[in-house]
Amino acid sequence: MQPCFVLVQPQMGENIGASARAMWNFGLDRLRLVSPRDGWPNASATAVASGAGRLLDEALVVDTTAQAIANTTFVFATTARHRALTKIVYSPERAMLESRKRLSAGEDIAILFGPERSGLDNACIARANAVISVPVNSESPSLNLSQCVLLIAYEWYRHGIIGVDRLETMPKSEWATHQEVESLAAHYEQQLTTAGFFFPPEKSNRMKQNLRNLWSRIPLTRAETQMLHGVLRQMARERNKDSQA
Amino acid sequence: MQPCFVLVQPQMGENIGASARAMWNFGLDRLRLVSPRDGWPNASATAVASGAGRLLDEALVVDTTAQAIANTTFVFATTARHRALTKIVYSPERAMLESRKRLSAGEDIAILFGPERSGLDNACIARANAVISVPVNSESPSLNLSQCVLLIAYEWYRHGIIGVDRLETMPKSEWATHQEVESLAAHYEQQLTTAGFFFPPEKSNRMKQNLRNLWSRIPLTRAETQMLHGVLRQMARERNKDSQA
Fold this sequence. Notes:
The structure is a homodimer.
Chain A: E1 4-8, H1 13-25, E2 31-34, H2 43-49, H3 53-57, E3 60-62, H4 65-68, E4 74-78, E5 89-90, H5 92-104, E6 109-113, H6 122-127, E7 130-132, H7 145-160, H8 178-194, H9 201-217, H10 222-244
Parallel strand pairs in A: 1-2, 1-6, 2-3, 4-6, 4-7, 5-7
Helix pairs in contact in A: 1-2, 1-7, 5-7, 8-10
């Protein structure tokens, strides 16, 4: 289950389309429209929505906010400004965590977004159970409608894929084992010893340690250890060739 | 301190303006542009940026990505697609936490955003130390440039409000700048070319890219780059001595 996003009296078709697209970027497809200014359907919305056209086709279009949220159990109002209404204010992150909790307990959730120019009016906000406020730079607080939808949708999706924040590697990469790195380090040490790099003798242990320390900090794949062995072999081969010449 | 956002070969002025505005929504104002398609300044960018016009006026405009990141110590590449380059992939959240830690330890951070149509190319990604990938619905993965900027900037700002732990570096360790790593990479490439390592010719570009990609993953101190230059010089000297013998 997922929350439904309710655009209240949206003005520009382009913004409705961009909002649908932003929702679908993050796997959300329950769109409701309250009295869109230019009527419905809207060709500009469809043009902008591109791959998210289905959301527009399936959108519930109603006359009043009350109808749009009638069968939901918990309603968030998005607003940038602080109003003279006493209301819990959630960050997008906390609001989406709360939504997931409530949805999994069988509730239904709506999130209200206001008209482009004015935002939600106090009558709408008063109907909401809580407010979502996106933290922004006070010198530049205006987000447009589809940007606001994008950020809330992103927060929804982000927490769905959590345990989040895994460190991932690109596909096909297989990390080198400690032993493989060790044998690479030994190969370098041996070649550099031959090349007379560890000089003067009283500093050689420290130099070797610095080099080992560096190896240990590199996250190496198996293919890369093989490449680096190849680098060394080629330089040694070249040297021998030179010296025979 | 804050990271700089680098737009690599952006195409539409509108997108540059919208990106500047999205940055400033979240208090970020260090913008760098690499070779914008339609030249600079750009009237469309200014029209869209509205309150964030200052970012455009103060933007550093350069010809190459290497110039844009020359004096930074850690570079993130934003990319949606998985590439055949082994690289740590961060979520936007973890990337911004990591950036805050590194910045507070005196580092400078760049975040690369690719051209609208194609995204960053592999040569750019190979130069980056890590990748940021925004988690999206696989059925609708395309975010536009300014949306991607918006989400990363939002994550930056969000964690500034929460506050984070500081990361301490080892005493006396001073990270190498991108330029220092670049010059080390060039030194290796030159020496390995001399040694005939990049063979056969049709594979040489791929081999060079793999090597560059490896450099970018190593967290190198300045002292270590000097040591590695020394390794190369010593091996070359040894080779010349052998060939004279």
